[in-house]
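quick one, 167 residues, struct below
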Amino acid sequence: MEAYRVGELFPIEQYCTGRELYVALPTEGLFNVLMSLKKISRKERKLFKNGKITAYLFEKKDIPFLILDFGEGFSFDISIDISMFDDETRRAWIESESNAIAIFLVEATTGILESIRLIGIGFASQLREICARQQGQTRFEEHVGLIHAAFTTRDMMHDAVAKTVFK
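---
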């Protein structure tokens, strides 16, 4: 198990690439979210640490997208793919009742963990239901690319099937 410490290098080295990225990191209960950004602004840091977060669930072609909106145009979306799980892990993950997500803000140029937020999404069961339909799905990344070509993050927020607000 990794130890996450603010001010230290993010412990999962494969994500310390120097590039900006948004990644869902599967856990036994749900998943965590890594936001790796270059030159994090003071405004982004403040919104991340202290601002209101709105989480949205968007779905197309049995692919769920989690959208996190920190306000003032600071938002992003990530797709959730559980196809890498073996059958036993997939079953346990789908049956879990956890709704907790840790969000990590990492400075991409250094790999240093800047901040952590913990949220509980009210639509975890809906997200799992969508993921349960992914079994046997192929060309996941291709479908994600097509969905991203058709929908902006704003579109996904507007057409979301569920949302949770954290203050």
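The mean pLDDT is 93.
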